[in-house]
Amino acid sequence: MLIKQKSSPIPALISSSPSRPAWAGNWLLLILLTICMWVAIGCGYGFGPGEVKLPPHAKNVFILMFDNKTTEPDIGAFFSDALGFEFSRSGVLKVTDRTRADLIVEGEVVSLKVDTISYGQFNVPLEKRAWMTVKVRLTELGTNKVLWRDDKMSWHYEYLVDVSDPRAGEASLREAIRQIAKNLAQKMHDRMLAGF
Q1: What is the DSSP string of the chain?
Q2: pLDDT per residue over 155-173, tens digit each?
Q3: Count of domains observed in the chain
Q4: pLDDT in tens, 86-130
Q5: I need a surface site. Which of 15, 32, 62, 123 has the fewest CB within 10 A?
Q6: For residue 181, is it within any domain?
């Protein structure tokens, strides 16, 4: 009677080749991955073109309401509020008034563009895309040294259009603006604190 031997799902640790054990390749891969991990986390995490070096004394940040160069009201407040939320959530810098701040964030909503991206019957708009561009900079208040800046940050958000209610379309645009502000605020926060 022949007994069929089942193959083990675990790779053999003994190699038939005397020159190199079977497990040697796995250990080499593990060592390389470990080194890559140390390099990645050793100096903080990096986003964008340059790493920000915050002054060691910097504990508080003031967020100025963003200037709004668009015709849509309240966008500047959306950005300031969203960025304030990100700093409060992370706890790396405390959001304060200008008199107690070590750093200041200033920004400008440069443009808001809305395009129709899909149409229904009789060429009725069904879906739109809001695309926004902002400028932002982080400055040390004591020295007026610009620590980080980005003049072309942009994000977009797609939303459905309710053709039966024009007011719903305006509400959808406002929600799109809030979502863009939220996503860009996360991006700004992470880039500003990339070297912290």
Answers
A1: ---PPPPPSSPPSS-S-SSS-TTHHHHHHHHHHHHHHHHHHHTB---SSS-----TT--EEEEPPPEE-SSSTTHHHHHHHHHHHHHHHH-SSEE--GGG-SEEEEEEEEEEEEEEEEE-GGG-EEEEEEEEEEEEEEEETTTTEEEEEEEEEEEEEEEE--TT-HHHHHHHHHHHHHHHHHHHHHHHHHHHTTT-
A2: 999 999 887 787 788 889 9
A3: 1
A4: 999 999 999 999 999 999 999 999 999 999 999 888 888 889 999
A5: 123
A6: yes
